[in-house]
Amino acid sequence: MGRSYRFLPVCPSTNDVVRCAAAEGAAEGLLVVADAQSAGRGRLQRAWHSPAGENLYFSLLLRPPLPVRLVAPLTLLAGAALAQALARAGAAPRLRWPNDVLLPFGGQMRKAAGILMEMASEGQNVRATVLGVGVNVNAEHFPPELAERATSLALAAGRRFDRGELLADYLAAFETLYDDFVGHGPGRGLATWRRYADLKHAPPVRRDGIEGHALDVDETGALLVEDAQGQVHRLTSGEIA
Q: pLDDT (tens digit, 9 = 90+) per residue, 19-32?
């Protein structure tokens, strides 16, 4: 991962750069890093605050030899790897299904990182998967609409961090989980995700008329939610309110 490496001072979105490279035949492991993004995005097309000189914005090209139906856990594995890297940096990360990484700041858990996975398929099989990651590393200020919900590694830990070292730690952690996922399935990666998820203390889940508490994730990466009547629902996408 990352041996084929491109650094861009600025781009609209690292995911877009990697997606174009994938269509041109780039090999698995391509890493694109930008110092800033002019049109960074997260899930549901939400804008991702991407100023220069502060944070990490990068995307990886993956070509897992798997059918599309088995690839969904990759988002959780990416979060698990990032939690490992942040924990080694001295932080206390928590994962929120499906793609948020939280850190404690100001007496509450706030979002410090997000993951966006986009996929191209060929028949029932994966042709290319683009894994985008945005991490608030050294940011100290956020736009008003984010100020009460966002934080950074520096704010949470009380010191600044080397972005290159953090990226290298992430790549090492992710490659280990990814290789195990391709060779043996998602078990090890999901176990790591569970270690940081702390589902027992997560807020209630509300989606499409379902309200309940998260129990676990299954082997496909879906969230299992138990409602007040004891019925267990399987959610394949959504947000914890």
A: 999 999 999 999 99
